[in-house]
Amino acid sequence: MRVLLVHQYYAKLRGAFRVLLGVERALLDAGHEPVVFASATPVSTPCPFDRYFPEGFTRSDWTRGGWARSLRLAARGIYSLPAREGLRRLVAEIRPQVAVVLRPEHQLSYSVLPELRDSGIPVVLWFVDYRFWCTAGQFYNWRLRQPCFRCADGAHWNAVRFACAPRSWPMSLYGAAARYVWRATVRLDETAAVFVVPSLANRDILERWTDVPIGRMRVVAHPLEAADFASPSRGAGDYFAFYGQLLWEKGVHTLLQAIARLPDARLEIWGIDSVGLAPTVRALAGELGLLSRVRIDTQTRHGPVLLDRLAGALAVVVSSECPDMLDYAVLEGMAAGKAVIVGDRGGNAEIVRDAGAGWVFRAGDPESLADTMREVQSDPHEAERRGAAGRRHLEHRWRTGEFGKRLREVIEEAMATGRHGTPLTHRAPRLSKRLA
Predict the structure, then answer these.
(1) What is the pTM of this model?
(2) Beta bridge partners of 271
(3) 164 touches 182 (CB < 8 A)
C-alpha cells in the first residue's frame, strides 16, 4: 500500500517530528511504501520525493528581501498555493491510496487538506498539538500562566490581545489571521476521515472545546524505537532532571519555586531556549537563592551525553501547565527507567498513571509539586520501582508492535470510510455556553 505522509518538515528532529518518523518506520516494517510530502528547507533530509517539495523558509528569510518578500512568505504560511501545486503533481504521478497528515503549518499550510479532498484521497489527520485552533499551540496563555481556550471556538483576536506568539504582537496577529483563514477554507469534518490523538485526555479536550467529531477520533500513543531502550537504568540518582523546551507552559517557574521549598534538593535543567527565556529563568533562580543548587544547560541536546546525565537523576520532572498532547520527555524518561513526575493536565498524567511510572501533582501549584518531590526524595527505592514499571510498560508496547497495529487500524478505517467519513453530528457549544 502506498501511504502519503504530509508534514511541514521531513527531518530527523526530536519532539513531535518523531511521530512522523515513527509512522514512516512502522509502514516500512509492514511492507508498505511511505511517500513523503514536506517543504524544502536547510534541515530537510533528502528523499526520493523532494522534487515535489515547495520551497520552505526560515526565520531569517523574514528579515531578508524587504517587505514584499516578507508579505509573500506570510501569505504562503497562511495558505500556500505552491504547496497545493506540489501536492497535486505528486498525487497525479505517484497515486497514493491514503494520506496521513501531521502538522502542515506553517511551511505547507492547511491548503493541503482541500487538495487531498479534491483528489479523493482518504485522510488520517494526526494531532500532535492544538495549533489548528491555538496560536500558542498548547491551549495555554503565557501571560495569565494558565490553560486558555478562548480561541477554540474561533475568537482568534484573543491571540493578539494576549500576544500568544511568545512576546510578539506582530507574530500573534499573523497567527490569528492564519487561523481565521484556515477556519474559513478548511472544514476538518469534510476533509479528514479519521482523527488521531495520543491519549484519551486529549480526545476529551477536543470533544469539549472544538468541532472535531468524537465518533471519528482514535487514540494512538506516540511511537518509540529500539534506541529509546539502549541505556540500561542505573537505579535512582541524587538530583531531579528537567529537559525539553524552555517555555512558560512547561512550568519551569513552578519547578524553581518548588525547588526553593526543598533545601537539600538539586535540579538539572537541559533546555532548548527557542524563545530567549533562559536569562529570565536564571534571574528567577537567582532571586530564589538557587544558583548553587540549580544548573541550567541550554547547549546539551538529546543524545548520549544527555542520556548519561539522565541516568544519574532521581526522577524526571515534566512540570507542564498546559494540557500537553503527550510529551516525549515523559516517554524517554520512562524508557530510561526513571520515575516521572508530571502535572495533572493532558496526556502526560494519563500514561504515568496507567503505567504506575511515577507521581502526578496539581499542575501550576509549586506547593503540590514540592510535596511530591519531597515524597520522592524520602523513598528513592520507590522511585526506582516506579521507574522500572514505566520502562516495562513501554518495552511491552514496543515489543508487541502496538503502534504498528493501531496505525494499520486507523489507515484501514480511513480507507473503508472514504474521503469524508461519517456526517458531522457533534458541534462544540459556543465558549460562553461552555463557561456557564
Answers:
(1) 0.92
(2) 244
(3) no
